[in-house]
Amino acid sequence: MRSSFFQGDFHDDEICYAMKHLGITPKEWHEIKSVVASDDATHGLHQHQVGIMKDMFSATHFSMHGLDGKTATMRGTRPGDPVADILFNMVFRLVVLDARKKIEASTGMCCFGSPKPAEDVTRQISVPDRGFAEVTFVDDIAYAIHSQSPDDVISSLQVVASCLHDSAASRGLAINYQAGKTEALIKLAGAGSKSTKHKIWHAHGGRLPIVTEHGVQSLQLVHSYKHLGSFMQDHAVVQKDIRYRTAQARKAFGQLHRQFYGKRNVHDRTKSAVYAALVMSRHTYNAHTWAWVSEKDLVQWENGIRAQVAALAKSVLKHVPPFHFTTAEICALIGLNGPQDLLHANRLRYAKRAIQTAPHAMWSFLYANDHENSWMTWLVASYKWLRVHLPRVAIPDLDEAGDVLAFIAIDEKWKGRVKAALQSCLRFTAANAFGKLWTSRLQIQVSRFAPLTEQVGPSAEKKWKCNLCAASFESKKALAVHSRHKHQYRTQLKYYVFGDECSACGKKFFSRARLLAHVGASQHCKEIYFACFVPAAEEVVESVENDEREKMRALRAQGWSASKAFLPVTRISGPLLPGSGTDDAATMKARWSARICETGRAFEGLDGYCECSSEAAKSDVEILPFLLQTNGGMKQGEAGIYMQFGLAAEAARLHINCFLFVHFFSGFRRKGDLQHCIESHEIVGNQQIFCISVDLCLAKEFSDLTDAETKQFWIQKMRQGQVIGIGGGPSCETWSAARHMPAGPSPLRSYDFPWGLPGLTGKQWRQVSTGTTLIQFLVDLLVVASQLGLCGFLEHPQFPLWLMRVRPASIWMLQALRTLARLECVQICSFDQCVFGLDATKPTTLMLLRLHTFKDVTFTKGLRGRCPHRTKHKPLQGIQQDGSFATARAKVYPEAMNRALAIAVSRFLTERRLQSSMSQLPIDLQKLDSTEFTDGSIVQPDYHQ
């Protein structure tokens, strides 16, 4: 048999001996021989390659230790020779070519498929009106057939299947027609499609007869099938493949959930790496080839692994509910790119490979699809994602798919760009995720003593009210969902329509869900049902819906909606219901009324009204919330823990045992600095306040404010009563308004992206990370000080009102600081530093913690803290003659401002020492015994004197 693969005569005696062992009759062998004699599977091979194959197939014997003689193989090739698959491909190629010739001769259709790559991917080549193409992978073959009429599509399909069957049988191969092996998926449209659908689905039962030379075969028509690991569905939907990808990811995760992912002694980075290799790869497999996929479908696909990544990020979240974060943000918390980001990157990489290898036919179909969710549209969206996240290197802004493909084709560094954008996207998503996590932890810490009600803006006012209870909702759909679950509401049609046949128009829909959709859309049928029937009993409707609920659950598990049409609508025979308003309809309704004593009334459960106008007032002016001036919030906390005095003052009296104020970010020591001004004040006799200036330029130990251990050290000192207050002005380098000026450095943050803009370089991300950590350091200390009755301040440039149109970044718009501003002990004071003697205006904002005296002093200067000077100050813009930025001269606080802060600190301690003793106020001190901070750390306080 092996000798038959090469040119020349083969020996009939040996062939007949082999055929006898294989069970092949002489008649069948002569038929195979006639075909093989005309074939040449080795055509095109080099002479040296042919010689190697002859040697492999002629000397198929080997010797073994302990056996006399040589051992011959009865099937296949010699052990260890990977030639069988290659040989099968060569033979199957002849089958496909032979079938192509028969199809072209029998149908007149031309084959528009070609294995040659397209020469110009930006140009669309027209596809013939009738044609077919093969998509083969080893022994898996798929035919794509299209024509101008539904009947021609069906007949062409039968001819294609017949020709392939005969070509395979002539070479001794058989086609498996079992379910899941050989199936056909059809989409019929246009004139005559309804009758054709009725014939193939109802007359033939969804099975096409295939007439071959060896008999009649039956080809199953399906609505979806699996090809090369991906599910194809009719109407070009991808819901089944989405559910399959999600199921595969859950299966891979569940196999190692207890044994690996749940182990505490395994590092999170190791878990993330294994998860990306075993689970994420299955979840994103071939997702970049999806077309006709909507944004809703992608969100559903992405959220399919939400519970898994939330379990991996449990140690990072630490009591913060995972529903506060998107799936991409949770992935970023454990160092992984989100599914949609990986989808963009894989789609862009696939485009590069497709340009090099894909044939013209694929590009023709891609260009012909002008749907809003076509693959080309998503390619442009992925390209824009690349432009947003690609650091430093600017690529052209392209809106047309052809231009994008042309740029990808000529770009030699495309893979590197995609990789760099993916890494930059991970840094951007992680920065936003950790910023949101820090904010949530701060709100949880503050709300332990003062519950924070959610602030609802004017645009989020609830408009729909339920008359049956006090609930209110933003939309009528939300009201309907509430009524369904709480008041057992059901739509009225569910009490009139049963079965799967419409008795008003004589159509069969094969499911009640489709029948309900039809009657709801047809006013004529709806009026007839209401005129002839009365509402059914509650128990009848409940029983029917319970049965349908199981069917719907099974359909959704397979990727279908509840109203999926597996069979087309057909006509039914029999009498129809009398028309609406006729005497027969009234008589039928009267009989049903006598038959059903207690009718259902659950459709009356939707009882509500809209309290607002249907047309919401639209405003073209957007209001950006930020902090500017406040006299203290309204939240006093449990037993007054967040008050200016009250329990906070009593806690300070009993807690403080050392008059020490810590000034962070102080810079080098100088005359008139805050430490100098504070230590020059005396408090009640000879007692004096001391101040410590903390900065990395002054000392190394406990001065690196980006270090977590340094933060814990100062928090511990505050809880031990060795500190009366803290304050400072963190670096504003990455928050500066100068970055939004035309001549300034490039911005690193914005109002919409306060934790860092997308597309920053690695160096810029390190700058942003340092600036964020310094802000969070001081805010965390202020939260602790507010609960211990201490004082403090946070200084930063004022929100730049003059740059409102460019939506600048500022710490005064952060949700965390806006939360602190709701406490009674916190005041916001905005002023111009020129009122304290600075030779520049420099609008500044201070968050004052129990330092109200500073605000009183500031408002006595200038125009209530604002610049009173008639001559303009020299702006803090540009570069000075010595090469430094002009903003450098405003980094140092004016001495008068330091004296005002010193007075406020002195007044804070004086007021608390002069206050009379008071009884202990009731408060649950157990909440203070173990406080978790926004970085996840836990400190045990010491309340003993």
Mean pLDDT: 84
**Biggest β-sheet: count, sense, barrel?**
6 strands, mixed
Sum up the overall morphology in one term.
globular
- Fraction of residues in β-strands: 5-15%
How many extended strands?
A: 26
Helix fraction bin: 40-55%
Count of individual domains: 4
Instruction: Output the radius of gyration.
Output: 39 Å
Describe what you observe in this structure:
By secondary structure, the protein is α+β, with helices and mostly antiparallel strands. The protein has four domains: 2-62 and 79-113 and 127-227, no CATH class; 265-446, no CATH class; 490-609, no CATH class; 638-939, no CATH class. Helices cover 42% and strands 11% of the residues. The radius of gyration is 39 Å and the shape is globular. The relative contact order is 0.06.
Compact description:
By secondary structure, the chain is of the alpha+beta class. Helices cover 42% and strands 11% of the residues.
